[in-house]
Write a structure and sequence with these properties.
54 residues
């Protein structure tokens, strides 16, 4: 295998690793966003219920 071919293969592997790392990061951010949304919804629901039952 020539040097340019080795470089291309190495660059492909690096790109695949970066894509994998990006996907994991995206999932982590999505999970946090969903968790924050659920917590905010529970807080709002608690405020509304407290307001209606006063």
């Amino acid at each position: 295998m020539s040097a340019p071919d080795q470089d291309k293969q190495r660059n492909r592997e690096i790109a695949e690793n970066e894509a994998s790392r990006q996907a994991v990061g995206d999932v982590r951010v999505s999970v946090w966003a969903i968790a924050v949304t659920v917590i905010a919804g529970v807080v709002v629901l608690g405020i509304v219920l407290a307001w209606l039952n006063r």
